[in-house]
Amino acid sequence: MQALSVSDKQAGVAAASAAARKNALDVRARMAVSVLASLVTIGIASPEGQLVLFAGSLAYALSARRGRAIALAYAVMALMAGLASLCTWAISLLSPAMPFQPRGLAVPFLRGAVMMNVVLPLALTCRIQEMLSALKNLKLPFCIYIPAAVMIRFIPTFMNDIRQVAETLKIRGYRLCFGEMLRHPLMLLRLMFTPLLFRSLRTSEELGMAAELKGLEAKSRFVPMCGRPWTRNDTLLVLGALAVALLAAYCHLKWGTLSARAMR
Amino acid sequence: MIRFEHVTYTYPFADRPAVRGLTFSAGPGELVLVTGESGCGKSTLMRLANGLCPGWFGGRLEGRVMIDGQDSLRIPLKDMSRRIGTLFQDPEQQFFALDVADELAFAHEWQGQAAEVTREKVNRAAARFGISHILGQSIHELSEGQKQKVGLASILSQEPRALVLDEPTANLDPESTAELAKTLLAMKEKGMAILVVDHRLYWLKDAADRVLVMDRGEICACGHPGLLSDDALRRARGLRGWQVKDERCFLPENPVPERRADERGLRMDEVCFAYKGQPPLFEKASAFLGPGVTALIGGNGTGKTTLARLMTGLNTASGGRFFIDGAEAAPKDLLRRVGIVLQNADHQLHMKTVRQELEVCLTLADRLDGGRKTPGGGLEPRVQELLELFGLGHLANRHPQSLSGGEKQRLVIACAFAKRPDVLILDEPTSGLDGGNMRRIAKALRQIAGRGACVLVITHDLELMRLACTRALRLPLRGGEKTA
Amino acid sequence: MKHFFSDWRAQDLVVIGVFAAASKVATLLVALAGGGMNPVSLMGKNLIFTMLLVVMLFRVDRPGTLLLFTIINSIVSMLLLGASVTLLPPMLAAGLAGELAMLCGRGTKRVWNKVLGAAVFDIVSKGLSLGVTWLFTRENPAMLVMVVPFVGIGYLGSLGGLFTGVKAVRELRHAGIIRQ
């Protein structure tokens, strides 16, 4: 009876993850959208074109269904934008050659928002475990896949190690606070990160031995156990991104250049 | 299967051989146990068997190591895994993936095997070790026993004919150790040649066919496992026990007396705690820790580490109270008066020399303490006192990271003791240590307890329990009643 | 190019990956602890990053290490932390510049050769990142002026990291972890 329930559970888990994989977007599609957005947002210099990009990218970001995280990111961005505006206003007082222009601030802020919108779905929707699968889908060469996989593998381990180091210091009586960081920055860095340095060296030695003993070498051919095929949703995403980019370019050319001339 | 013929090996930067004149063999269906005190050359022997010496480490090899009738020098390191599998002391350090299935598949994926073949091998390996139900689990969520099974499954899916295990029981509880012994016995019966390098001896009483005892790079005793029943031999070579009783059954229960204002020790009264989103771990649980050395005993998931964290003030209980020496203690008081030595010594060493490490700890302790418990005199005499108490005098100017496992462990205990805590908690202080170092730690704990501290030890080491612990605090703690 | 991709040992790639993870975790934690714009944490995270870079370059003594480290860092940062893909070209350029510097400085003592590579990498990457910032903020030059002090402060941290990197290598020798 127990064996049946375990295999049912396994089958259920497998079916659920298969369904999730089918609906999730491929990391290659997401990266393509990031690259396209970067190129287009840098090229377009008008608020009109940037607004189109912003609208399209916001819809994409919201599709990740992580409203709270996105709201937090926007709150931080708003704070940064406020501080930047203040600084540029102050600079304009000191240097008349750089006058304070609200319209001149709009395009850089919109660029930042567009970039944030396209990278958030990439960062928020993949759990770290899925990152390794994502790497496999990229079909990277051995010399890039192995260190990237190792990096992803050890980020959670090292974060746990640092947490333990911090607890040890707390127990010993070291105050881990901002004030201490200002008073004794080098000592704090030494206390926190020396164990990490030694751990890195020991870990890399042991894992390196394991890699050699597993027979890993550059001539190896990689065949993933579970690949994720390119789906219709991925194609739709990339085509949608292209459409938004073209629309933004059109708006920039039709209205953006006019308004720039009017400003001058 | 594995044959050493007059093997002498010298590491590249060493001026003398690490091992000398080794001659022995391990054939199909044989389990050979290699033991000896720290630094005797066991690890080098293991590295010679799996080709890491000289394939990885370089160095000079004299004599021959024959693997399946072939000279190991003629076998490329990358092909070794198909002949000899190696399981390191900490299997997690060998893992490339973040979940179990990916880890089992990793080596096969990079050998260019078809996806269906890889899937089949993964499922077979998982079924063999009873880990099919955790295939989707993260490696960080596994118990030590599960990690070891994943490591073994991954290695054996490559179908080697021999297996080398480096201190496989260092992080295991007695139940998992017994399970591992059964697994090795089953593999032996299928014709696998097995070489086990370990300090713990008792668990292979029924499985080992031969024992090699090493000392200073040479085999000083070799033969039937029965030779380990010689107490004189074990003492002379710094070995652990051969017949080890399960002390967990025999240690008297830790009593919980009525609270008094003048009592000495740490008391927890009707403490409640649950991790977010999980059932309560402690519900109105009470316990008392008096002066002496107490073993904290409990199965996986019963809350040993959590209890230690609550007692130290690292986690805050949702209900109940703590008392130290009769007076109620808030979490920040607990942090000040309770010391803890975590399992991983490397996380607790920060400075350039042993002396500096102790100086920093004493300075921090003085700051924490506000001078209340600080004895008179400067820093130097107190550093010297700690160095002598823990046998670290000759290592004062050494880099802490250059110390052996036993020396590091003594150093981190000394660092925790620098705080002069009323309560000292240690998490697996003798994991991976040889008999001599284990006995030194046991003696240090008795000395600390002798100075009036309450010492709580979380340990799977039955020998440490016998030598140092006088009573046990058993988990799970029953709530709402005093444990007798 | 094919030779570059095919001629790596697994053990060296593992070292690069482990150090990339360590540098990412360390810089992230310093930034989180002190705030990303705080001068002390800005300097601190750059110091740690450069120190680990110097140690890694010393540990994996072969051409292409710095470039590969940069590629890995950029890819994983993009996947995991949402870093902008626009930083990839300047980082690659900085990696190449660092490699070229190490190639030209091959006659010097090993640790100083690695320090040279890390120093060139730091200055080129900071300079080019300002270039990327200009691309994003060219409509309002004052914003670029605003960013320059932060990059400058970060660079001071990187300079500190060069020296602590050398000290770290010496300490690792003293500890017997790495040998001459």
Overview of this protein structure:
The complex is a heterotrimer of chains A (264), B (484) and C (180). By secondary structure, chain A is an all-alpha fold. Chain A has ten helices and no strands. Chain A folds into two domains: 44-127 and 232-264, no CATH class; 140-223, no CATH class. In chain A, 81% of the residues lie in helices and 0% in strands. In chain A, helix 3 runs antiparallel to helix 10 (232-263) and helix 7 (142-172) crosses helix 9. In chain A, 41% of the residues are buried. The model of chain A is unreliable at 1-16 (pLDDT under 50). Chain B is of the alpha/beta class and 484 residues long. Chain B is 32% helix and 22% strand. Chain B is built from 15 helices and 19 strands. In chain B, the strands form four sheets. A six-stranded mixed β-sheet of chain B has the order 6-7-8-3-9-10, sandwiched between helices. A five-stranded parallel β-sheet of chain B has the order 16-17-18-13-19, sandwiched between helices. In chain B, strands 2-1-4-5 form a four-stranded antiparallel β-sheet, covered by helices on one side. In chain B, a hairpin with a 2-residue loop joins strand 4 and strand 5. In chain B, helix 4 (100-109) crosses helix 5 (115-128) and helix 5 (115-128) packs across helix 6. Chain B is globular, with a radius of gyration of 24 Å. The relative contact order of chain B is 0.12. With 180 residues, chain C is mainly alpha-helical. Chain C has a single domain, classed as Arp2/3 complex 21 kDa subunit ARPC3. In chain C, 82% of the residues lie in helices and 0% in strands. Chain C contains seven helices and no strands. In chain C, helix 3 (39-59) crosses helix 7. The chains are: A mainly alpha (264), B alpha/beta (484), C mainly alpha (180). Chains A and C meet through helix 2, helix 4, helix 5, helix 6 and helix 7 of A and helix 1, helix 2, helix 3, helix 4 and helix 6 of C.
